[in-house]
Amino acid sequence: APAPESLADHLALLAAHSRQELDGRTLPELIARGLHYDYARIVDAMDTDMELQRQWKQINAISREAVRRFLGTIPPAKRIAIPVSQILEGSLPVRISEASDYLHREAGLRHHEFDRFWHFLNTVLMNLAENHELKALLRALDGRYIPPSPGNDLLRNPEIVPTGRNIHSLDPYTIPSSFAQKAGKTTAEQLLDQYRSESGELPESIALVLWGTDNLKSDGEGIAQALALMGARAKTDELGKICDVELVPLAELGRPRIDVVMTVSGIFRDLLSLQVRLLDRAARMAAAANESEELNFLRKHVTQEMLERNCSFEEASNRVYSNAPGSYGANVNHLVESSSWEEESQLADAFVSRKSFAVTPGGQWEECPEALRSALRNVTLTFQNIDSYEIGISDIDHYYEYLGGVSKTVEHLSKVKPKVMVGDIDGIGKKQRICSLEKMVSLEARTKMLNPKWYESMLAHGYEGVREIETHLGNTYGWSATASAVNKWTYDQFNATFLQDEAMLERLASLNPQATMSMTARLLEANSRGFWKADQEVIERLQDIYADLETRAEGAHLEQLQS
Predict the structure, then answer these.
(1) Who's near 126: CB < 8 A, 6+ residues apart?
(2) Taking Cα atoms as reference points, which of 279, 262, 79, 289 lies closest to residue 175?
(3) At what angle do helices 502-511 and 513-528 cross, to 10 degrees?
């Protein structure tokens, strides 16, 4: 199990997550009600309202303290002498009483109002405390049965604990789940509302990135979003298994059908073949529907493409694209990381060359680069879900490889920069889960790369920690190259924090000179490509730093050869 403080944070996050088994209620929501605060208004408007921020901090503090009190009465010494599950079960009434008393004092809530929460959290706690891994390993080596377990993260599916079980990924006939369909429909409408509030109209065409791992974790929420945007929904058979899709009548939908161009990852293509067919069928059904083009943008664009390119309906209605079978990735990240691109068109060409295989009605994948280009020319909004607390858009390069890659391709083809939005995992349980890419990049820079708590914890790991900081800068730069989503402040602060501070520079250089050189080179490249407008004296200082690091690296290499 995690350390006590970390465990309290994990359980507080679980209590803040909207759950079907708890009627969708969250602990912060109930605390807000007890304090007579408008929870919906807090989560929607606290970014710009200091009083709402104060209320949110109060709610969050009470929630975390209640969870800590729920944990805090377990006698640590007994954990060794008595089985953990026995301690947790025996101490549960006392711990519930302690936490409930605190919530009653601080928020005026009735004592038994949270009993279901505490029993739920205690079950998770007991499963976290149990370690079956060594026992399961011995059973496996002996050729004996290992119980199954779903694969996911703890926040989305607490059933993944205890560990030491045989992980299975999915039942394809349950994706998207009913809960994912409800959440997907909600976030799809939020996405349209956000775009309409900024642009004054609905987007006719959206480029949607779908990853296999994210949809496995969310039980298909991204798939449900795509269906909802097109005005479609999954159908189930008499056993409750998903078997087909159907179009939602326009009168029920209440808005036009959106043209959705889906680029799916290679893992999605391989693992979710049924869902690929359902998405493809929904797009073709919408394109063929006998409806006004003013209320069916997919039909409108398919008809235009058939006339302009003199192509068949089957080709013009291709909307699900991926790599060639057996191939993975868009390779945009490799071009950016190696600085081996001169024109932005090279990034767009790389994306199209890798992701232009469309699924046919027969389930085959055929290369259709012109069809993909034609579909992307109509796009004015690109979108992807971020479905992990642990891994954000600056932690790995695949986010800008996919979402950045398709955004740059749309910009290159249409000559207009699309709006780029993401679905924020932090919004789970909140009213609004959509935010701009620029906001998310800035948020991650502040909370990770430029946060002393984060980078000092990285530096404690020496060589590898410096490399991790350099990786975050490289991935942040990737959002400049593909989506122009990084503001000047981010580069200014990185430079001031890590390279202009002599003591910090020496720490970095002594721990990992190569990564420090790469950071310096990346800032110089950002300036030379116009992503960062730095003063000339700053650039000259960075050039001097790079030259000095290069000299030191050459000297160290020479010493190695001589020894």
Answers:
(1) 84, 85, 88, 89
(2) 279
(3) 120
- Edge-to-edge strand list for the sheet holding 434-436: 365-367, 357-359, 320-322, 259-264, 205-210, 381-386, 419-424, 434-436
DSSP state of 363: S
d(CA 99, CA 473): 42
Written as six digits, the tokens of 79 are 């954990």
CA distance 195 to 423: 13
* Pairwise CA distance, residues 455 & 507, whole Å: 12
User: Whole-angstrom Cα distance, residue 16 to residue 155?
Assistant: 10
* CA 164 vs CA 81, 125, 141, 415, 438: distances in Å: 23, 16, 13, 52, 40
Q: Distance between CA atoms of 218 and 194, rounded to whole angstroms?
A: 22
* 98, 70 Cβ separation under 8 angstroms: yes
Cβ 441 vs Cβ 364: under 8 Å: no
| 433 within 8 A of 424, measured Cβ to Cβ | yes
The total of other beta-carbon atoms located within 10 Å of residue 460's CB is 8
Q: Do residues 70 and 96 make contact, with C-beta atoms less than 8 angstroms apart? A: yes
Q: How many CA atoms lie within 13 A of 512 on its CB side?
A: 20
pTM score > 0.85 for this model? no
Distances (CA, A) of 179 to 106, 190, 219, 224, 403: 33, 17, 8, 10, 25
- pLDDT per residue, tens digit, the chain (563 aa), is 566 667 888 888 888 887 766 766 789 999 999 999 999 899 878 878 999 999 999 999 999 999 999 987 555 544 445 566 777 888 888 889 999 999 999 999 888 778 888 998 999 988 888 778 999 999 999 999 999 988 777 877 788 888 899 988 678 899 998 889 998 999 999 999 999 999 999 999 999 999 998 898 888 999 999 999 999 999 999 988 999 999 999 999 999 999 999 999 999 999 999 999 999 999 999 999 999 999 999 999 999 999 999 999 999 999 999 999 999 999 999 999 999 999 999 999 999 999 999 999 999 999 999 999 999 999 999 999 998 767 899 999 999 999 999 999 999 999 999 999 999 865 544 566 899 999 999 999 999 999 999 999 999 999 999 999 999 999 999 999 999 999 999 999 999 999 999 999 999 999 999 999 999 999 999 999 999 999 999 999 999 999 999 988 776 656 666 66
Locate 435 and state its tokens.
Answer: 């935010």
What is the distance between the alpha carbons of residues 416 and 198, in angstroms, rounded to a whole number? 16
| Distance, CA of 45 to CA of 23 (rounded, Å) | 25
